[in-house]
Amino acid sequence: MPPRTTDSAPERRDDDHPRPDQETDGERSAGRGQGHAGPGTDAGADAGRGGGPAAEAGDGLRPAPVDGAEGGTGGALDTDPVPGAAGTGGADSPGVEARAANDTDTGTGPDTESTPGTHDRPRAGNGSAAEGEPDGHGGSAPRPENEDGAGAESASRPHAPSERDAVEPRVAALRRAADGGRRWRAVHLAGCAALLAVALTGGAIAFGGVGDGPAGAGAEAVSAAGAPPAGVLARGDLDSGIDSLQKHLRAQPRDFGSWATLGTAYVEQARTNGDPSRYPQAERALKRSLELDPGNDQALAGRAALAAARHDFTGALQDADRALKQNPYNERALCTRIDALVELGRYADAAEAARTADDRRPGVPVFTRYAYVKELRGDVRTARDVLEHALEAADAPGDIAYVATALGQLAWNQGEYKTALGHYARALAADEDYLPALEGRARAQAASGDRAAAVEGLEQVVARFPLPGPLVALGELYEDRGADGDRAKAGDQYALVDAWTSLARAGGVNADLDSAMAAADHGDKKEALRAARAEWNRRHSVHTADALAWALHVNGRDEEALPYARRATATGYRNAGFLYHRGVIERATGNDREARDHLKAALDLNPGFSPLGAREARTALKDLEEAR
Fold it and tell me: What distance in Å separates the CA atoms of residue 59 and residue 574, rounded to the nearest whole number?
């Protein structure tokens, strides 16, 4: 399994309950104009089902990934005129815009994320929507934008048959281009990139929008009692919740709380569906909320989650702290603060933040983060106990799927494949389409020796969302199988990783960790080192230490790599990949005894940690034993 990242850890999908002495947003805003918002609805999942129920910072609990490139079709909900209002017909009307998006599907500009994984793929649309322009009827409405991609409706229905039917043909087209492009390698990557963009964004069609028309002109900020209940999101029906929020905001465009909820729901949707078009939409929705009620904790917490999803963990920490100054009980801010500290490598601070969050808002989102902090510090038993407790407490299908998958990942990391498969089965019983569980099951099948099922499973995963982690895993399985055409198939998977990375960077997303990890083994080694160094300059986590160590190694700089390899394993985190990397680097530097110890430890811990890496570890260990 790829390293777990916090950008996919869950957050509660219910109301962000006020602290005991605090009144609700509806109570306060009903009796006032503008002001600071109290805790309100959570927006349902701020880390995602590239992660899990509600929350994202990254990529589950395992590092993963990004946001993406400019361009696209149709406007976001928060930038379209109000449907049905006078003067909103023509090219700017939702119906016309939707048709235009449909007609030009394959010409859309790319949107890519991490997530993500997630592990995080977004595209950076037009960062700031030009809001407040005259809308033709005396009010002030946002200007429609065609640069930021996906509209509200179809992208907000990721699991609906209509969307799945649309996504799979686009990915199939991507595959066909990859197959046909082998004779034209110079244009292969560009073709993959374009089609990958279509695969990620094609289902997103403009759906209508919200604006400050006559009804909203001059209105003061409110958090209306008529807003859709958080329970819509709490039940895990994110798409219906977003639809309800959009309809509500057409009627109440000055409702700062619902803008914040919509923004964080878009963050969740981006991670869940691999649809990076939602990140710029999330940014605008959260910006609108803060314009209506500066400093409201809901929007600040949502902005923190967005920053974490884009792998800006310093910014995520800052916004989480700002939100907690307004409301110390804001669950999303408490959870994102843990995420950011973990990803920055500040594990002692993360442990303290987890204890604080557990005191204030105990529940599944906090339990899963607490467990990951324990795992990173080598306390696997406590991590397992906490996750089992979280699973007992989970009742929503999304929470069950997420926590069971986290247990599966933990078991897989310890080489307990049968146990891992049991957890993944439980996750998929709760949500049969939960991609992290499908990916985890395929990896466990591969490690157990069922390579045919593993290949089939990963092919299904990447057919839906061609993201770096499963693409690399599938490519390595092809290489390991070695049948006719498998090397070319593997090369196509790695080329798609490069395409994804290019799209992510084009959108201003920090994809350096993902790039370094993939390129070191399957791409440009110099680029791997550049990316790893850049990431290390931003954060000192065990994952960045390992990535930098390995990038230095593949570039022949083992003496320089060794301190980083040691640092990656210094917390006690039991990760076979890290141990393998350290052993190989120690062997290259002449530390044969330590190399034997760590290579053996990697294979004892998780003998199927990587189809290619495990094979190379066995070969290196055999050579060391024979040389004694």
Answer: 19
pLDDT reading at 551 higher than 50: yes
Tens digits of per-residue pLDDT, 357-383?
Answer: 999 999 999 999 999 999 999 999 999
Q: What is the pLDDT of residues 474-484, one digit of tens each?
A: 999 999 999 99
What are the CA-CA distances from residue 269 to residues 67, 101, 201, 276, 486 (Å)? 13, 20, 13, 9, 34
Q: Enter the tokens of residue 191.
A: 């073709």
Which is it for the CA torsion 481, 482, 485, 491, positive or negative?
positive
Alpha helical stretches, state H, 202-343: 231-234, 238-251, 256-273, 278-292, 297-309, 313-326, 331-343
pLDDT of the residue at 57: 34
In degrees and rounded to multiples of 5, residue 77 shows phi and psi of -55, -40
Residue 355 banded pLDDT, cuts 50, 70, 90: very high
Give the single-character DSSP code of 507. T
Centroid of chain to Cα 583: 31
The residue ranking higher by pLDDT, 352 or 48, is: 352
Q: How far apart are CA 311 and CA 115, in angstroms?
A: 9
The residue written with tokens 């028309």 in the block is 213
**pLDDT for position 601:** 97
- Among all chains, which residue has been given the structure tokens 């939602």? 278
**DSSP state, residue 609:** S
Helix runs in 394-511, H state only: 397-413, 417-430, 435-447, 451-464, 468-481, 486-506
- Cα R_g (the chain), whole angstroms: 23
> CB of 549 within 8 A of CB of 564?
yes
pLDDT tens-digit series, residues 559-605: 999 999 999 999 999 999 999 999 999 999 999 999 999 999 999 99
pLDDT higher than 70, residue 495: yes
pLDDT tier for residue 88 given thresholds of 50, 70 and 90: very low
Q: How far apart are CA 427 and CA 423, in angstroms?
A: 6
Considering only the C-alpha atoms of the chain, give the largest distance between any 2 of them, rounded to a whole number of Å.
85
Tell me the CA distances in angstroms from 299 to 57, 263, 264, 324, one per residue in order: 15, 8, 8, 12
79, 84, 31, 28: which is closest to 214 by C-alpha?
84
- Find the angle CA(31)-CA(282)-CA(103) to the nearest 5 degrees: 125
Encoded tokens for 74 = 């149709």
Phi and psi of 141, rounded to 5°? -125, 155
**C-alpha distances in Å from residue 209, one per residue of 96, 143, 435:** 13, 11, 30
Cα–Cα distances (Å) from 315 to 213, 277, 304, 344, 595, in that order, read 33, 20, 7, 11, 39
For the ranges 27-31, 243-247, 307-311, the lowest mean pLDDT is seen at 27-31
Q: 17 near 459, Cβ under 8 Å?
A: no
Pairwise CA distance, residues 319 & 304, whole Å: 5
Q: What are phi and psi of 212, to 5 degrees?
A: -95, 75
Q: Would you report the helix, strand and coil content of the chain in percent, each value rounded to 5? A: 60, 0, 35
In tens, the pLDDT along 228-278 reads 444 445 445 788 889 999 999 999 999 999 999 999 999 888 877 666 668
Instruction: Give the H or E element holding residue 552.
Output: helix 542-554
Structure-model confidence comparison of residues 32 and 503, the more confident one: 503
Residue 488: its pLDDT value, please?
Answer: 95
